[in-house]
Specification:
The protein has 683 residues and is an alpha/beta fold.
């Protein structure tokens, strides 16, 4: 006789349900925790994962309600059952990020079925075959860092703070070598944008065909093959963007999160998880070390290191004592007062940067210019009536591209550019502000001999295009590269000696409490591309930062390579305002096609929040901000408002939010209520 405990099981199904559902075992077989099953749900059949035996109380409740429990239909043994440290991690994700477990589990499967045909030809395209290269002898700082991390066999979090070019990647390679020696597997997580061929090459050189790679540009077949290679243990090191964490790998000996400060680790939709934080938790469940690396660690990680929750390892100098770049700041406000020179210089280019560019090009060295804004012009404006061209779907001005069409950078709305103002019918729309496309055009006129290339999302749409660009930079077929933040991260070009930031001010004043931190990171990362291979006795790489705001904190500290000074200053600000990393934050965004419905829902939510705060002592300390219009008040036709909640403890905050939302029956129809735990983007 089967006892009641295992007569029925709890299944997390692929549906937007907060709770798991109870199913009777199939008459012919029984299933247990971690198995992937198909179960009936209404008229449909859905996939789910068995979480465990049903509680007798659930069975009694169903019986009392006269509810007929359905049976498990089949076991899907195509995929391996999810085993425990990993399944426990999935349960943690669902709970922490307030997202249905059944939906979280769906992220763990490859897109296609396992293939039975030969796959050698496909694989060659994903991982380059590379001749093994001789290794560097580690520097003193690298040796100390490696030894410090290897003291720990169990769960421990290590923050590697090393200046750009200090050899952090080399440290990761050494650590993974040891993992392989022990017969274990490793995960190397990188932001999608830095998952460049250069990085994969370095791993391929060291580990040959032991690596698998997962990123968004693989075909479904490639992705499925890579998935199986690492899951079966055929491959040993998985390199991937944040979603690589969902590969159910056993016996993980090390997880490394490179560029841990990157906000792109955070997924902005559906399961709004942070890949870095989730990696730390996965390591905790797997009981292995996790390494977070950056030249500009996030304030969250830095504070954890200061509070001794994380082990801190610092590398203060570049390898082989290569000099850090020399950073100069140019005040663009003074440029207009300079005596006119014979050359026709565009207004966005300072005399100093122009001179440096000329000298650099004469030495046959490369220049990279950063402008974090695409297109020809930031906005087009009618000088007669002040009308600006705006996106009809979003509360955002349209950007002029190729002098011919206007584009919305949020929803991709396009229209032809017509000179006559559509509003006053009098004036002629004039392009204002600057974009990468305009800079490229000006540069070609200014330096007709130079090869100019542009790297932004209009120009570089695929990995293949990025690869081609990198190769051209490596071969010095490009003299001047102009790009958005796409070129700021992870790239290593030996002949790049001058970096210019054309308008550092973009980003200084975004209405987001992390705007200073982001600016500091971007300036430091971009500066770090300059002179990476300059020898100790050579002139250092040059960086010229153009700005209208020379006294901005993030600029002053970046100029002196003073990360610690910056974080101390920024932590003081954050502490005063109870911002992360001191308090935890949760944002609830309300959006709908109807502005009235958004406002009404926010009003009710705010009332519920204040009532709960008053009534329950445990919620007295919850700070409630808003409701307020989101800085991007309308996107893709949806009106957007948000409420923000803060408290020192994430658990209390999560409890409050789930109480506040309840069963959401009070939410108006056609209104979306989106919960974002630890939000990275408040726009
Ligand atoms: P980071 O990741 O800190 O920016 P990298 O690991 O990319 O630094 O190292 C910067 C450059 O120095 C790379 O070209 C790398 O091959 C080289 N390098 C790393 N470690 C050493 C070493 N110990 N000796 C000589 N060169 C090294
Ligand atoms: Zn739009």
């Amino acid at each position: 006789m089967i006892d009641q405990e295992v007569a029925a099981v709890q299944v997390a199904v692929d549906a937007p349900l907060k709770n798991q559902l109870t199913y009777l075992q199939n008459e012919n077989f029984s299933v247990s925790r971690g198995q992937i099953v198909t179960v009936p749900l209404g008229k449909r059949q859905v996939r789910g994962v068995v979480i465990g035996p049903a509680k007798s109380t659930d069975l009694e409740k169903a019986k009392a309600a006269g509810f007929d429990l359905k049976r498990v239909i089949s076991v899907d043994d195509e995929w391996p059952a999810l085993k425990d440290p990993f399944l426990k991690w999935l349960e943690w994700l669902a709970q922490y990020y307030a997202y249905p477990l059944g939906r979280v589990v769906q992220l763990c499967f490859p897109p296609l079925s396992k293939t039975t045909t030969a796959r050698a030809s496909k694989r060659a395209a994903v991982i380059p075959t590379v001749a093994a290269r001789s290794e560097h002898a580690p520097t003193v700082e690298q040796t100390a860092c490696i030894a410090g991390i290897q003291e720990h066999k169990d769960f421990s979090v290590h923050l590697v703070h090393g200046v750009t070019g200090s050899g952090k990647t080399e440290i990761y390679l050494k650590l993974f070598e040891k993992v392989l020696e022990k017969g274990q597997r490793g995960i190397f997580l990188v932001p999608e944008i830095s998952l460049t061929p250069q990085l994969v090459h370095r791993f391929a050189e060291r580990f040959g065909d032991k690596i698998a790679v997962l990123h968004s540009q693989l075909t479904d077949r490639e992705r499925t093959n890579q998935w199986w290679d690492i899951v079966t243990g055929n491959k040993k090191i998985l390199i991937g963007a944040r979603s690589a964490l969902f590969c159910p790998i056993e016996d993980v000996g090390l997880i490394v999160v490179d560029e841990e400060h990157e906000s792109s680790y955070k997924q902005d939709e559906k399961l709004k998880y942070n890949g870095r934080d989730s990696a730390v938790m996965l390591a905790k469940f797997m009981d292995c070390p996790v390494v977070l690396g950056s030249a500009t660690p996030s304030l969250e990680s830095w504070k954890n290191a200061v509070d001794k929750k994380y082990h801190l390892h610092q590398l203060k100098s570049r390898v082989e004592n290569r000099p850090l770049p020399n950073i100069q700041v140019v005040d663009m406000r003074l440029e207009k007062d300079l005596p006119k020179k014979s050359i026709e210089k565009p207004y966005w280019l300072s005399q100093q940067l122009y001179n440096e560019m000329k000298a650099t090009l004469e030495r046959k060295e490369q220049v990279a210019l950063l402008l974090n804004r695409r297109g020809m012009a930031h906005l087009v404006l009618c000088p007669e009536c002040g009308h600006t061209a705006e996106c009809p779907n979003c509360d955002i001005s349209l950007t002029l591209h190729a002098q011919s069409h206007l584009v919305c950078h949020y929803c991709d709305y396009h229209e032809n550019f017509k000179i006559k103002c559509s509003d006053c019918k009098e004036g002629e729309l004039t392009p204002m502000g600057l974009g990468t496309e305009r800079v490229e055009e000006d540069l070609k006129k200014l330096f007709p001999e130079a090869n100019v290339a542009r790297a932004d999302r209009d120009e570089i749409n695929s990995r293949a295009e990025l690869e081609e660009l990198i190769e051209k930079m490596e071969q010095s077929e490009i003299d001047i590269l102009i790009g958005t933040q796409m070129i700021a991260k992870g790239l290593d070009f030996p002949n790049l000696k001058l970096v210019g930031l054309l308008l550092a001010d973009i980003g200084f004043n975004l209405p987001d409490f992390r705007s200073s931190e982001r600016s500091f990171q971007l300036i430091t990362q971009m500066s770090g591309r300059s002179g990476r291979h300059t020898k100790a006795d050579e002139n250092p790489g040059q960086v010229i930062i153009q700005t209208y705001n020379t006294t901005h904190d993030s600029l002053l500290f970046a100029q002196n390579h003073d990360y610690e000074g910056f974080v101390q200053n920024e932590l003081n600000h954050r502490a005063q305002l109870n911002y992360p990393p001191f308090h935890k934050m949760t944002a609830i965004r309300v959006q709908s096609l109807s502005l009235q419905k958004v406002k009404d829902t926010c009003h009710v939510m705010s009332q519920r929040a204040h009532a709960a705060k008053e009534k329950f002592a445990i919620y007295h300390d919850i700070e409630i901000l808003g409701p307020a219009q989101a800085p991007m008040a309308k996107l893709r036709n949806q009106f957007r408002y948000h409420l923000i909640f803060k408290h020192p403890q994430s658990q209390r905050l999560n409890q409050f939010v789930s109480f506040l939302l309840g069963d959401e029956s009070w939410v108006e129809s056609q209104v979306k209520v989106l919960v974002d735990i630890d939000p990275m983007n408040l726009l």
